[in-house]
Design brief:
This protein is of the alpha+beta class and about 180 residues long. It is built from five helices and seven strands. The chain is globular, with a radius of gyration of 17 Å.
């Protein structure tokens, strides 16, 4: 399916959005088979961090919606990563570890990048400080998964284990796409 344009057809986000924009398409799909990719993979060390665009392309390739359910089916979509009931109640946010304190969310259903308005910027600063304590030379991005227990709870009783499973599936998919 084509991503929703940024116009009035974009669904309103439940998160406090400062600004949002459509993600430009990533590089076209490869004609290589999965076996070719695995066999041809080599470890490569780089001395620079990834660009923000690269991070978003990895996230979009890993979790972007492939089909969106009709409105009467609820807020569901089909993506390459598994999710309990196609709810996709785990969202991905990206926090730059250097520079201004900003946090971004990727809306997989609409293929949008959103700059969020943090309710408590000091919490983001504290998180970045803790990451830098563990990884003092880290200059990239933190990928943070946020689970919507209320969304999953409307469909499942005691949804926590499903949310953990969904988060693990997302991490697995992102790792595979990033390689």
């Amino acid at each position: 399916p084509e991503p929703h344009p940024i116009s009035g057809t974009a669904k309103r986000s439940p998160l406090p959005v400062h600004r949002q924009w459509s993600r430009k398409p990533a590089v076209a799909s490869s004609t290589l088979s999965f076996a070719d990719v695995l066999e041809g993979r080599r470890s490569v060390r780089t001395t620079h961090g990834p660009r923000f665009r690269d991070i978003i392309d990895i996230v979009a390739s890993g979790v972007g919606a492939r089909a969106v359910a009709p409105p009467e089916a609820g807020d569901r979509h089909i993506a390459p990563v598994i999710s309990a009931g196609a709810l996709h109640a785990v969202r991905i946010t990206v926090l730059p570890l250097r520079g201004d304190v900003r946090i971004f969310a990727y809306d997989a259903r609409q293929d949008l990048v959103q700059r969020l308005v943090p309710a408590l910027a000091s919490g983001l600063v504290a998180f970045r400080d803790r990451v830098r304590d563990c990884l003092p030379t880290a200059g990239g991005y933190a990928i943070i998964l946020l689970a919507d227990a209320q969304m999953a709870g409307r469909v499942y009783r005691d949804p926590e284990s499903l949310l953990w499973r969904d988060a693990g599936a997302i991490l697995q998919r992102l790792a595979m796409v990033a390689w």
